[in-house]
Amino acid sequence: MSDDKSHxxxxxxxxxxxxxxxxxxxxxxxxxxxKSGVILPAAIxxxxxxxxxxxxxxxxPNFVPQATHQILINNTQSVxxxxxxxxxxxPSVVTISVSxxxxxxxxxxxxxxxxxxxxxxxxxxxxxLDGETSAVxxxxxxxxxxxxxxxVVGTDPTNDLAVIKISGSxxxxxxxxxxxxxxxxxxxxxxxxxxxxDATVTAGIISSLHRTIQVPSSAVPKGGSSQLWGNNTxxxxxxxxxxxxxxxxINPGNSGGAxxxxxxxxxxxxxxxxxxxxxxxxxxxxxxxxxxxxSNDVKRITxxxxxxxxxxxxxxxxxxxxxxxxxxxxxxSVGAVVVSVTPGGAADQAGLKANDIVTAVGSQxxxxxxQLTAAIRAHAPGDKVxxxxxxxxxxxxxxxxxxxxx
Length: 406
What we know:
406 residues; mainly beta; Thrombin, subunit H; Pdz3 Domain; 2 domains; 6-stranded antiparallel beta barrel; 6-stranded antiparallel β-barrel; 37% strand
């Protein structure tokens, strides 16, 4: 099957903001890992800027963002739903600054309070500097401009999530919505620190549900050396994420921040944007195609991390590949083909066989192997999933009890 990324020349950019080490106003160079039409780490957001004396300099040495740390309401008679949502949710959103102990790299991102005791959800790529290192120093700035040192509780590279913690017991946790009950077209608000502008609010809608994107893994290799990103987008260094698509503007620095509904409840953690290609300056920004990890996945994984320090993931126990359309172009996929099953594994026990085509997991339509992988990994071991399968001219419904991928 021909990968649609080659047709649309698009890129996926992690939304943490990488900061060059020096000099302050130098344009960050595009990473040698970049290539058009692949998913890229946050470092090649390639923004102007550096972290100098705690202030983000964005477009040159003479341009410094003014303090806009809290949601200001000057006229209570003209407040709309976006203002209300922002005022409700902003106290639960933080700005995160991460620097390598070696001093070679740094970046900024966002996060949300999970509880009043200082546990914060963010993206794994934020706290590992896109997989470069686990030896980092982390600072968190809250909506009331207090700054705290933070420590990593645990990370989940498979779903690009992490939990960090600051000291305290009176923080305002985000309220979670049920992401399985979302509708396309529903209004949403994104809150985070794009380009270092903390407490930034943007509004939009849910553009699509169960979108699958493939991004480089931000896991730190054993031994702690820098992650080497290959040019093969199907390599083991890539992960598949089942995400919510939104047109609310998100940019580098939004990673780990909140995507909330019209009640101010969390529906997702912002993780990436798509771009139409690299510009001559190497900069990347929102084109209205952003992605967030669904809140139900965030809740399950972060709860596990808080309790055990790590997360678990479902395993089907089957080798799969794309099933290309029989049309002339052959550019679309119509399910995931089972190549083989692991004897005694979940797929085998459910009755799945080689050459079966999986077309749905529950109510989620499966178009390709990446989508099936993302759907399964979003589940916990022990979950029962319903698989819709085409076998020859028959359509079957099978139930698999997932094993553990860990």
